[in-house]
Write a structure and sequence with these properties.
The longest helix is centred in the last third of the chain and has 33 residues, at about 90-125. By secondary structure, this protein is mainly α. The protein has helices at about 15-25, 35-45, 55-85, 90-125.
Length: about 120
């Protein structure tokens, strides 16, 4: 069990106090108001994405960066695939334009397929 070293006092309305008492009454017998308040503060702090260094902020910003990199990589890979398929020298300028258009068009589908695979893997865990 954690050692409690900081003590704080709070002020609340009677309505908040009544709601807190109701919540505590629904918990196991050894749960105190302080336990419920401590858990509420813990959840609040964990959900503050703006706090630099918080676990949730780091996970979210890392995931956003990975998603952007994945989208860029998928786009470029699509262009390469379409260009390889269109290696005929005749009409190469048109083929390059077609490859870029096709990569833009099909990129979203590929990303959706990647996301579906991720979700399937996550549901197996």
């Amino acid at each position: 069990m954690e050692k409690k070293i900081i003590r704080r006092s709070i002020t609340m309305t009677q309505e908040m106090r009544d709601r807190l008492a109701l919540l505590v009454s629904k918990q196991p017998r050894d749960t105190t108001e302080a336990d419920v308040i401590r858990e509420a503060v813990r959840l609040y702090l964990d959900n503050q994405e703006d706090i630099i260094g918080s676990r949730k902020h780091f996970q979210k910003s890392l995931q956003e960066r990975l998603d952007k990199l994945e989208a860029a990589m998928s786009f470029h890979l699509n262009i390469l695939i379409y260009l390889l398929a269109a290696l005929e020298p005749e009409g190469s300028a048109d083929r390059i334009a077609e490859a870029i258009i096709a990569a833009r068009r099909d990129g979203e589908t590929l990303l959706a397929q990647i996301q579906a695979v991720r979700e399937m893997k996550a549901s197996k865990r």
